[in-house]
Amino acid sequence: MNITNLKPFSSVLPAGTGEKTEAPATQKQAQAFGDFLKEALHKVNTMQLDAEKMAADFTVGKDVQLHEVIIATEKATLALQLTMQIRNKAIDAYQEIMRMQI
Asked: Is the pTM of this model over 0.85?
């Protein structure tokens, strides 16, 4: 087997690849994930504020139906519970990774 025609990896790889470009790509992915989390938390917060406003409007006698208030409140409650469960799972995953031996 003839191995004399092997080239160094830097000449085989396309321009712009390597460790220096890997970090910004990972950083962009982390940034995109962070933006996703911020947006999701913002939506949960908006749902809670809307439910609170509907309940206040119902209390003062504005034209809001009781079933609409209950539905909005339940949606906000479920969204918050889901958010808390996701947080708990993320913490559990982090703790499991920290317990791993290298």
From this structure: no
